[in-house]
Amino acid sequence: MTKLDKAKFKIGDVVSTDGGETGIVQAIFTTVDGEPRYAIENEGALDFICESRLSPRPKAHLAA
After folding, report:
1. Domain range holding 14?
2. What domain of life does the UniProt record list for this protein's source (predicted)?
3. Distance CA 2, CA 46 (A)
4. Range 34-42 average pLDDT
5. Cβ(55)–Cβ(15) under 8 Å?
């Protein structure tokens, strides 16, 4: 099992950064040290962010 198998987020997850921005996980990479790094899309731009700077975005409950 690799460290990517233990990644906290998966592609397609909506996440918040520690800076308060929201984005979608588009890809997951491994750093030279073997830690997961995420490509987060926000308004068409990609940011590459380490896992410790991300948190899950609460899912909205929509009325039917």
Report:
1. 8-56
2. Bacteria
3. 24
4. 93
5. yes
Residue 2 makes CB contacts below 8 A (sequence gap 6+) with: 30
31 belongs to a structural domain: yes
In a domain, residue 32? The reply is yes
Are 57 and 16 contacting, i.e. CB atoms less than 8 angstroms apart?
A: yes
Q: Integer distance in angstroms from the first to the last C-alpha of the chain?
A: 41
As a whole number, mean pLDDT of residues 42-51 equals 94
Grade residue 34 by pLDDT with cuts at 50, 70 and 90: confident
> Could you give the C-alpha distances from 9 to 30, 47, 48, 63, 64, in angstroms and in order?
13, 15, 14, 26, 28
